[in-house]
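quick one, 584 residues, struct below
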Amino acid sequence: MSAYAELHALSNFSFLRGASHPAELIAQAHALGYRALALTDECSLAGVVRAHEALHDLHDAAFKLIIGAEFRALCGLKLVLLAPSQSAYGQICKLITLGRRRSNKGAYQLSRADFESGLEDCLALWIAPPQATAAQAAWLREFFPARGWLALELHRDADDAGRLTAALALARVSGLPAVACGDVHMHSHTRRPLQDVLTAIRHGCTIDRAGWRLYPNAERRLRSLPELQSLYPSSLLAESAAIAERCSFSLSQLRYEYPPELVPDGFTAGEHLRALTEAGLARRWPRGVPASIRDTIERELSLIVELRYEHFFLTVHDVVEYARRENILCQGRGSAANSAVCYALGITEIDPGRMQLLFERFISRERNEPPDIDVDFEHERREEVVQYIYRKYGRERAALAATVICYRTRSAVRDVGRALGVADADIDRLTRLHVWWDEPGEIQRKFAADELGIEPARLQRLMRLVRELIGFPRHLSQHVGGFVISGESLSALVPVENAAMPDRTVIQWDKDDLESLGLLKAGRKRDPTHRPRSYIGRPSTAGEVASNHTFDGKRLQHVDALENEDVGPPHRLPLSGQDVVGQV
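---
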């Protein structure tokens, strides 16, 4: 039986197109015996971290995740680009950034010329249109020499035999090798109903009126090897595995460089941090630093340098110093209040001479977790701090982290209900019955008990689809100020796109994605299906400077400035003074 690698698969991060989570695609491809799976969402790498996590959970070095993306040029050209190496990955990131930065949020624009340079290390799969010509194929051979393929995607349509014959003939005439692909939109045929719903939502119509916009069958799924062998010549299946063999890039290979501006010439980061700390100690204790404080400072600085967190402290100090110069109110909080170095640098105001600090709560060698500093900036002037970071590091090296806006129960009920043709009045009644803490079983009992104008079969179908849709990403939004700052072009690490707000750009990964890769650790984990919660003592709008964390031994600077959040149930009351320090 021929080996196979799926080289064209969309997840639900191709918003309202893909009907499966990245992890589901990875798990199913592995279970089916594929050699690899390429996650190729449309002009996006937003889902690749989730796929990377799922790959790690398999504990199978023989199975590969290939990073790539699907693109549609304005002229109608459709390509899938794959990253066999880190340089190719960076080229795809830059192309996505180019297309996204040209357009408003949620869209992209690329011309054929954009694919003619800057992609020298990428592999290209051409999704040829019907009646494709040798002249069109010649373009791919010219700009992707020995790196381009004619992708053949068969889905048991009536004209499959003719399409196969035409594709093989075009491959012979043009000299382009052909390869089998699936144009996968779901991991299993069981997601076909949800895929139809997503299509209807995307087109703003009901399923009954979607017509030819719906796929005619469930063949855009991950299919078994025997099924694939019945559709494609073995040589085309083998070619997919050969392409996968050329791809060795993994997200774990990425490296990060610190912004050089933070450290003056002639100093190491540790030396500069010590100098700033000593200057702060002189301001805090003009009559001399107490011996106990000096011991604490030396112990903290030693551990900071050992764990290579100097740049993190320098970054936070720089932002706080800017705020002080501009008379912007700011205040450090959280576990950083246990640090004498933070007090000396002016980040926090907890005097270590007046209380017993628990520095290990902030940084611990044994816990091996990077530090987390929260700094609140006054709401009315937070944008000044945001723009200062952009000015200092430039748009090429600074962008906001994303927030993945996901379906929750009410939004899922609304969209699925409209796709199924449920009356607006019944949809409103359904959403009013729901409260955010309801478990799925409780929701169904409430809906079943209420007298609705929905026949039982349709209600049951609606609830099944709602359960599947909850947690699906809807779109990327900006984290309310979480900056990622790099020493080199940020778009070589992750694509950057325009935010909805003017003069703001976001990366395509959210804080949880970055944390899972080790790039940074969020102040608190966020479950996309649960309501966000605020801290006790936290203003409804605030700024936050958060963490610098490891990615394969390197660290990525991250600065937060948080805005409004929905307030959930209150956290437990603090039990001690130390709890107050940790929470307020």
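Residues 86-101 form the longest helix (16 residues).
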